[in-house]
Amino acid sequence: MMAAHCALLPNGMVLGFGYRNVGSAESGDGHDHAFNEPYTSAQYWSPQKMEPVGEVMWFQGFNAFCSGHSFLGDGRLVIAGGYKSGNPFHPAPSKADELRLATVDGEGLRWENPGKMKRYRWYPTLVTLSNGDSLIIGGSAPLVANNWFDTNNHYEYYSVSENRLVPHDELEWEYPESEPPVDPDSTGRQENAEGRRLAGLYPLVHLLPSSGSGDDGLGILFVLTDSFVRLYNPATNRLLGSPLDAGGFRTWMTQGASVIAPIDIGPDGQLPPTVRIVVLGGGSTGKANPYDPALSDAVVYEYDVARRTLREKRRFNLQARRIMGDATLLPNGQVCLIGGAGIGYTNTHSEYRRRPELIDLNSYTSRQMAPLPENSPDRGYHATSLLVPGGQVFVTGGNGLWNEGELSNRNAQFEHKTVDVFHPPYLAQARPEIVAAPQSVRHGEKLEVRVRKGSAMSGGTAPSNATPPDVVPAIILTRNSSRTHSLDTDQRLLRLQARRQISADEVLLTGTIPPRSWAPPGPYLVWVLGRGGAPAQARPLLVHL
User: Fold this and answer.
1) Are residues 388 and 464 in the same domain?
2) Based on the domain organization, do 521 and 395 belong to the same domain?
3) Are the C-beta atoms of residues 386 and 6 closer than 8 Å to each other?
4) Which residue among 57, 307, 458, 480 is buried most deeply as judged by most CB within 10 Å?
5) Which residues pair with 232 in a beta bridge?
6) What is the structure's pLDDT at 144?
7) In what order do the strands lie in the sheet with 309-317?
8) How far apart are CA 478 and CA 525, in angstroms?
9) Measured between alpha carbons, how far is 424 from 326 in angstroms, rounded to an integer?
10) Within a 10 A sphere around the Cβ of 467, how many other Cβ atoms?
11) Which residues, 6+ apart, have CB-to-CB distance to 106 below 8 Å?
12) Strands 5-8, 14-18: parallel, antiparallel or unpaired by DSSP?
C-alpha cells in the first residue's frame, strides 16, 4: 500500500494508511473510483524487524485519505475527515464526515466508529490540547473546483473524558476571524477569505503553554493558515494579538514543514520563559503553477509564555528550496528535513529533493547529507517520515501524478510503496543503554531512568567494542508522531535536565515531568544520550491525563 498517513503507535509499531490501493475498476469517466470508494487501506511496519508485518487491512465505511489525525491523551489515534471526491462537483461520496479511533489491542488494532462530524472535512488539522482532547481545525467540502470554497470554520473536538465528538451544535462557536492582514510585498499570494480566517486547509498548528507554572486553560495554539500566523486560545475561542505575515504561502497547496524547537525543563520542573516554533520552506505564491519556486528559508517565531505574545525572532537559509518536505525532530535536538521539491507543488515537473538536511536549531545552520540511494523513489507529495525507537527515521509514501488526474492504479509505478530508513550520523557512535524506565507517569512527578554504566550498544557502523560514552545528564522525551502531508501536530521534544547519581554499575537520572500544556498527555518515547549525542534505544512512556 501507499502510506500517505503514518503514526507511531504506543506499542512501537508504525501504522501506515491511505486510500484503497487495489481492486477498483476504471469507469471510463476519467476518475479513479478507488479514491471515491469508502475504503481505507492500512498496514503495520515493524521498526524492530525493519519490515512490514501482516497483510494490508481494509477498513470499510470511510476513506481516510487526506484526513487529519492526532493522539488523544489516552493513547488512541483519532482520525477525522478524508477524501473529498474525484469529481469537484460531487459532494464527497467517500464519507469525509467520518471519525475513526485506532486503538492498540494486544498485537492487533481495533478500529472504532464513534460517529460523524456535522460537515465534510477534506484536509483538516487535528491537534491535541493540554486536557488530552483533540481539536479539529479547518478542512473543506468544496462543491466547485475552488478547494477553498466552503472552508469549514466551525468548532468541534473529540472529548476523552466523555469519549465522544462534541459537535458545533452544542457549542455554537465559529472560529474567530481577524481584521484583514496586510500583505506587505503585494505578491498576490493566495489567501483564504482575504487572510481573515483562522481555519484553512491543513493549517500548521502547534500546542504552546498556556501559563508559566500551571495548567489553566487548554493551552495556546500557534496557527499558520495560508500566509499568516496567529495565536489562538481554544478555551475562550479568541485570537491573541495581530496576525504576522509568514513571508510566503506555507500551507497547502505549497506546504512547508514546522516543528516546536526542543524545550528545556529544569531538574525540579523549572520552565523556560519562551518557546520557539520553526517553519521550514513552503511556497512563494501558493498558486497551482508547476514552475513557481519554493522558499529557501526557515522562519523562527518566539512565543513569550507569560505575556502570551508571538514575534518573529529570525530567519535562516536552508540548503535547498523546499516544499512538502517532512521535518523530523531527532533525539539530539537536530531536525532531519527530508523529501519534497524545489518548484511547483511536487508534481511531475518538480525538482525533487533527494538529499536530506540536518538542521541545528542552536546555531540555525543546515548541512546536506548524502543523497537517497539510487533505487529510492522521489519522496514528494503524500510522503511521510517519523522517528522510530531505534533512532532512525522511517520514510515512505509519495506519488508524482496527483495533480494531473493520474492518481490511479493504472499508474501504480508512481505510487511509492517502498520504505527508506535514514540513519542519522549519531548511529555510527557507541550508544548508552537504558536498563529501567517506567511505562507511565503523571504531570509533576519525578521520572527515573537507569542507565547501565560501562556498557555500549553499537549502532550503525560503530564496532561492538567501542568505548562506552559518558551519559548526558538529561532525559529526552519525544511525543509519538502522527504525520500527513508534511504536517505533524503531535511531534515535540522535551529535554528534562536530570540529577545524576552514579553507582558501581549504573547511572540513575531523575527529571521532572512539566505541566500538561508543556507536555500534553499521550504516548512518548524516553531517550538518554551519550556525550557525542548518540541515543539509547528508546523506551515507551504514557504521560497520563
Assistant:
1) no
2) no
3) yes
4) 480
5) 221, 239
6) 61
7) 257-260, 274-280, 297-304, 309-317
8) 5
9) 15
10) 10
11) none
12) antiparallel
Contact criterion met (CB below 8 Å) for 248 and 284: yes
Residue 398 and residue 527 in one domain: no
Answer yes or no: are the C-beta atoms of 45 and 385 closer than 8 Å: no
Please report where in the chains the cell 522558499 appears, as a residue: 295
Cis peptide before 457 (omega within 30 of 0): no
Residues 448 and 499 in one domain: yes
* Percent of residues, the chain, with pLDDT higher than 90: 58
Q: Are residues 438 and 523 in the same domain?
A: yes
Q: What's the grid cell of residue 429?
A: 557512535
Give the closest residue to 121 by CA, choosing from 142, 95, 100, 139: 139
Cis geometry, peptide bond prior to residue 253 (ω within 30 degrees of 0): yes
Which residues contact residue 180 at a Cβ distance below 8 angstroms, ignoring those fewer than 6 apart?
A: 194, 195, 196
Alpha-carbon span 415 to 380, nearest angstrom? 11
Domain match, 347 and 489 both: no
Phi-psi region of 362 (alpha: psi -120 to 50; beta: other; left: phi over 0): alpha
Specify the residue for cell string 492487533.
108
Buried b (16+ CB within 10 A) or exposed e, 471-480: bbbbbbbbbb
Asked if 402 and 469 sit in the same domain, the reply is no
Sign of CA dihedral 84, 85, 87, 90: negative
State yes or no: pLDDT of 473 exceeds 90: yes
Do the Cβ atoms of 337 and 326 come closer than 8 Å? yes
Whether the per-residue pLDDT at 262 is higher than 50: the answer is yes
Which residues, in sequence order, are bridge partners of residue 357? 337, 368
Burial grade of 187 (CB within 10 A; 0-12, 13-18, 19 or more): middle
* 3-state percent breakdown (helix, strand, coil) of the chain, nearest 5: 5, 40, 55
Residue 456 CA to residue 464 CA, distance in Å, equals 7
Dihedral sign of CA atoms 84, 86, 88, 91 in order = negative
Confidence of residue 409 (pLDDT cuts 50, 70, 90): very low
- Residue 397: closest CA among 348, 339, 479, 343: 339
Which one of 107-111, 117-121, 266-270 scores highest in mean pLDDT? 266-270
Indicate the burial class of 174 (C-beta count within 10 angstroms; 0-12, 13-18, 19 or more).
middle
Residue 344 CA to residue 348 CA, distance in Å, equals: 9
Is residue 478 classed as helix, strand or coil in its secondary structure? strand
Reported as a single tens digit per residue, the pLDDT across 476-506 is 999 999 999 999 999 999 999 999 998 888 8
Q: Residue 420 belongs to what domain range? A: 5-426
